Automatic annotation (TrEMBL):
Keywords noted in UniProt: Signal
InterPro entries referenced in this protein's UniProt entry, alphabetically: GDSL, GDSL_lipolytic_enzyme, Lipase_GDSL_AS, SGNH_hydro_sf, SGNH_plant_lipase-like
CDD domains in UniProt: SGNH_plant_lipase_like
A Gene Ontology biological process term: lipid metabolic process
Example of a GO MF term: lipase activity
Source organism of the structure: Pisum sativum (Garden pea)
UniProt KW Signal keyword: yes
Protein name as annotated: GDSL esterase/lipase
Length: 375
């Protein structure tokens, strides 16, 4: 009788307070992916470049001013970056640690790490032109080292299970298109030829991940490169307009990358490969900023917002009062709020419930129930 009464009380509670109980249960349920692994560039780098012999780093204030504790962790922004927010939205953990962080512990390994390196790309020349930036091949080598560490920590069988069920996210191509094709010998190539070579390298990288056990991968497009404050400064004119030519190159590359991902997926039916468009969501926000609460989408928050990045963005340079009003933090990287709105759109496009516990928490203080996007 006592058990029956207890069951009835639970049932009544669920009926009366179902909305609250669902949130409580969501907070404790296992996420769809046990781990997240990030590869690529500064959109994802959570501090790997801190420990590399390169000038492409940002482990100085005011970077990280909106991060936990206001610390400059080597993330290229004012707070969490895109890899952190994807990881948090999927309910894995709030931030994604850098693999090269000396403080990384065995307990961090089973839920994933970041291998991305600011300044990297599918073209080795992109990384090598900036000193010690990790090429995609070097990132893959570190992933193999990670696998050995994971096996030692949890055993070979559990390690294989984690890798096969984990989500792998890749952001590469931004620096290839915006930097290597503009400022290196790659400029002598026809762009469609260069873009095709990038896609081939990307496909080979994805095949290598597959051979190492990966089965779930998101491949991100570039961001709207012609709308970066750096591009506007160089070619945007007095009005600091988006540079259509640069955006056109990004769109061409993104289209070829999408086709390349689809082609590879068709040849490997058990490979859950997805091309994820971040170009369009970001461009939509930039073209209609006030609807999303942004008041400046043409300058970075740090300094004049026209050329400062890395060491040039420091405590001696002016900072905007509120990063929430700015789409860009420096001349090449969005703010955390810009990333949050982008994550909301890409998750919505994949039919995720934006009001679920983990997504709402990751995107706070955004009111996810009021978000409406016109794609």
């Amino acid at each position: 009788m006592e058990n029956l009464m207890r069951m009835r009380l639970v049932t009544i509670f669920l009926v009366l307070f179902g909305r609250v109980s669902n949130i409580a249960f969501a907070a404790t349920t296992n996420p769809a992916y046990p781990a997240v692994f990030a590869f690529g560039d500064s959109i994802f780098d959570t501090g790997n470049n801190n420990n590399l012999a390169t000038l492409s780093k940002c482990n100085n204030p005011p970077y990280g001013r909106d991060f936990y504790g206001g610390q400059a962790t080597g993330r290229f922004g004012n707070g969490r970056v895109l890899s952190d927010l994807i990881t948090a939205s999927l309910g894995v953990k709030d931030t994604l640690p850098a693999f090269l962080n000396p403080a990384l512990s065995d307990k961090d390994l089973p839920t994933g790490v970041c291998f991305a390196s600011g300044g990297s790309g599918f073209d080795d020349l992109t990384a090598n032109s900036q000193g010690g930036v990790l090429t995609m091949g070097a990132q893959l080598n570190f992933f193999q080292q990670y696998i050995a560490k994971l096996k030692a920590a949890v055993g070979p069988e559990k390690a294989s299970d984690i890798i096969s069920k984990a989500l792998f996210i890749i952001s590469a191509g931004n620096n290839d298109v915006a930097f290597a094709y503009s400022f290196t010998i790659r400029r002598t190539m026809l762009f469609n030829v260069y873009a095709s070579s990038l896609v081939t390298v990307g496909q080979n990288f994805l095949k290598s991940l597959y051979q190492l056990g990966a089965r779930h991968v998101w491949v991100l497009s570039t961001i709207p490169l012609g709308c970066l404050p750096a591009a506007r400064t160089q070619l945007g004119g007095a009005l600091r307009s988006c540079v259509d030519f640069e955006n056109g190159l990004a769109q061409m590359y993104n289209g070829m990358l999408s086709a390349g991902v689809s082609s590879l997926k068709a040849s490997l039916p058990d490979y859950d490969l997805k091309f994820v468009d971040v170009y369009t969501p970001m461009l939509n926000i930039i073209q209609n900023p006030f609807a999303s609460g942004f008041y400046n989408v043409w300058n970075g928050c740090c300094g004049t917002g026209t050329f400062e990045m890395g060491a040039q963005c420091n405590l001696l340079t002016f900072q905007c009062p509120s990063t929430a009003a700015y789409f860009f933090w420096d001349v090449a990287h969005p703010t955390e709020r810009a990333y949050q709105l982008t994550v909301a759109q890409i998750l919505q496009a994949q039919n995720y419930d934006l009001t679920s516990y983990h997504i709402s928490k990751a995107l706070h203080p955004l009111n996810v129930s009021s978000l409406s996007f016109n794609n």
